[in-house]
Specification:
Blueprint lengths: L1 E5 L2 E9 L5 H8 L8 E6 L1 H12 L14 H10 L3 E4 L2 E5 L2 E5 L1 E7 L4 E9 L7 H22 L3 E8 H7 L5 H6 L5 E5 L4 E6 L1
Parallel strand pairs: 8-9, 9-10
Antiparallel strand pairs: 1-2, 2-3, 4-7, 5-6, 7-8, 10-11
Amino acid sequence: MRHQVVGGSENIVFDFPRSHPIAPLLINSVGAIEKCDRTSHLTQSPAEIAMLINCRGSQSEESAMPARDIYHYSCKNALINDGWTVTDDPYLLRWGPKDLYIDLGAQKFLAAEKQDRKIAVEVKSFVSPSEVEDLKNALGQFVLYRALLARTEPERELYTAIRDAVFSELFEGSVGQVLLEDREIKLVTFDPDKEAIVRWIS
């Protein structure tokens, strides 16, 4: 991101590849785009950007759809490759007048038990500067969704999906290990390059 002055007024110019994960959010929020072959240039005054993004943020919780995680489709494909049928993208979790959305709902028929196993999966990228902060946010979301699912669809299991590399860094011999020992969170890990499930941790 850089600043430029046009006609005496300050503007912010976003200059990044169109494939960058944040591009759709900024394009949808700002709406000013100059199409180029490889790069998007979004130019608005700071006040206009704040107003437009705040307008999007003020949408009612009932109608607002969550932004997809950057590894959403990698995880979705990994589940499909693992034999799961994705039934909801996203999975609607309704509680009174509030609508919440879990990234994916899926099911798989278990021949041994002669019934379907149903899961809800929240995908987390863990790409912020603080993995511990990401972990706190993921845990809080998991606890909330688990409590609501227990009251609305208790047979559906909730999992937080993370890259297997993140699991190795944060949950093996680290602070995340405490959560696993106390069974505070259920995880499914995946390899985003191979689009494959690596392990389930309950």
